[in-house]
């Protein structure tokens, strides 16, 4: 099975204009599970760049089993930052 990031996804291209908008905070890659979804047809694999409120709506749709989020990341000024839940920062800072 190929990695989801190696395949062409529907929705926003990796260099989409939406990625660089000031309100964009999240990138999600997901599979559409429900046939009557606003995102697309059942089985479609999508990528979207979202503002905070749209991301919260996507999380609710995942709880309702309309979509299954495969990968997500924070977006800051167009930069995609990997976000790994449950992993704490292990850096130790020294006082000067």
Automatic annotation (TrEMBL):
Pfam families assigned to the protein according to its UniProt record, in alphabetical order: DUF5720
Cited InterPro entries: DUF5720
Annotated ranges, domain DUF5720: 4-87
Record-given protein name: DUF5720 family protein
Species of the source: Faecalibacterium butyricigenerans
